[in-house]
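Working notes for the structural subgroup meeting. M.R. asked for a predicted model of this chain before we commit to crystallization trials. I am recording the input and output together here so anyone reviewing the notebook later can reproduce the run.

Input as submitted:
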Amino acid sequence: MNIGTWFYMMVGLAGGWIATLLGGWDAGLTTLIIFMAVDYVTGLVVAGVFKKSTKTATGALESKAGWKGLCRKVATLFCVLVACRLDMTLGSNFIRDGVIIAFSANEAISIIENIGLMGVDLPPALIKAIDILKNKGDKDDEI
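Returned structure, recorded in token form:
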């Protein structure tokens, strides 16, 4: 067995193990991971190209902000892991799905915000919906 085959086998085993821990590779997990990747890339573009990031003082690309973003993405997957284990413990299947839907919605909002920071004209209804969700989240934080 050559080194390339061994490497791909190890990556496949690790990926399968992680997917199993997260409750299986289904449409919800696929959507969440795609949204997380798109959010990260659009965040890099906003900071690196447009210099309009809200995560840094200058609005420019900063490795510390990027690292924090990746850490948040990993923490999101840890939450999915916890929800999956709770489902297994309770014999249910809705906690994981609810967590994935909530985080996917949050990622979608962030993607839309990033696209807006790039100067793309967003439909007014979409902007209003994001404002409502953000304001609701701010009010929930005060409780």
